[in-house]
Amino acid sequence: MTDSETTLELAADPVSLRLVRLVAAALADESGLDFEDVEDVRLAVDELCAAVISATSDGGRLRVTLKHEPGAVTVDGVAPAGDRPPRLDPLSAEIVAAVTDDHSLTQVDGVCHFRFVKRHASDQA
């Protein structure tokens, strides 16, 4: 299998999360992550997309780019910023930290951005 990238552009609306979760889980599975890792990807996508969507201006679009390679998935999301920066509540922050190998959530120059990486446990030496 070679590296692959998939980009989704959707309404920045909670209803869109279902599609992003499904695609992220499918790509995580395709990259060889085990069941637990696939569920971790699904959780991280849900929490980080929700944080960005809640901070996005009405009518904004969410663009999510998912890159998968053998044993790893990287997910980037961007959307126009609204009145407040994106943030994770304390429990969500703990969840994302526990289920990803690396993550960020920022707002710069009117754009909300998140990124996370999930690697198969055996690939984290």
Would you kindly provide a written description of the structure presented here, covering whatever features stand out?
The protein contains 3 helices and 5 strands. The radius of gyration is 14 Å and the shape is globular. It has one domain: Histidine kinase-like ATPase, C-terminal domain (Heat Shock Protein 90, 2-Layer Sandwich). The model has no long low-confidence stretch (mean pLDDT 92). It is α+β, with helices and mostly antiparallel strands and 125 residues long.
SSE inventory with pairings:
Blueprint: E1 4-11, H1 17-30, H2 35-55, E2 61-69, E3 72-80, H3 90-99, E4 102-108, E5 111-119
Antiparallel strand pairs: 1-2, 2-3, 3-5, 4-5
Keywords:
single chain, 125 residues, alpha+beta, Heat Shock Protein 90, five-stranded antiparallel sheet, 3 helices
Helix content: 25-40%
Counting DSSP H or I runs of 4 or more residues, the number of helices is 3
Q: What are the secondary-structure elements, in order, as H or E?
A: EHHEEHEE
Shape: globular
Which regions have little confidence, pLDDT < 50, spanning 5+ residues?
Answer: none
- CATH class term: Alpha Beta
The Cα radius of gyration reads 14 Å
How many domains make up the 3D coordinates? 1
- Give the DSSP E fraction (strand runs of 2 or more residues): 25-35%
Helices and strands: which structural class?
alpha+beta
- Which fold name fills CATH's third level, the topology? Heat Shock Protein 90
Describe the main β-sheet briefly: 5 strands, antiparallel
Under CATH, the homologous superfamily reads: Histidine kinase-like ATPase, C-terminal domain
